[in-house]
Amino acid sequence: MSLLRLSLSASLTLAALLAVACEEGGSASGPGGSGAGGGAATTGQGGAGGATPVVPTAEQWAALVTLRWDDEGPPEDVTNAWADSPAAAAFGQRLFFDGRLSGPLLDGDNDGTVGTLGVKGEPGKVACSGCHLPESWFSDTRSNGQQISLAAGWVLRRTIPLLDVGHKKLLNWDGRRDTFFGQAIGVFEAAKEMNSSRYFVARAVHEHHRAEYEALFGPLPPLDDTQRFPALAAEETGCPEPDLPAADCEGMPGDEGVFDALAPADQEAVTRVAVNAAKAIEAYLRLLRCGEGRFDAWLDGDDAALSDAEKRGAIAFVGRGKCADCHVGPRLTDDGFHNVGLMPKTVAVVFLDKDDPGASVGLAAALNDPLSSRGIYSDGDDDRLPASVDPALLGAFATPSLRCISKRPSFFHTGQEKDLREVVAFFDRGGHPAGFLGESEIEPLDLTEQEIDDLVAFLLSLDGAGPDAALLAPPP
Ligand code: HEC
Ligand code: HEC
Question: I need a surface site. Which of 116, 143, 145, 439 has the fewest CB within 10 A?
Answer without folding.
Answer: 439
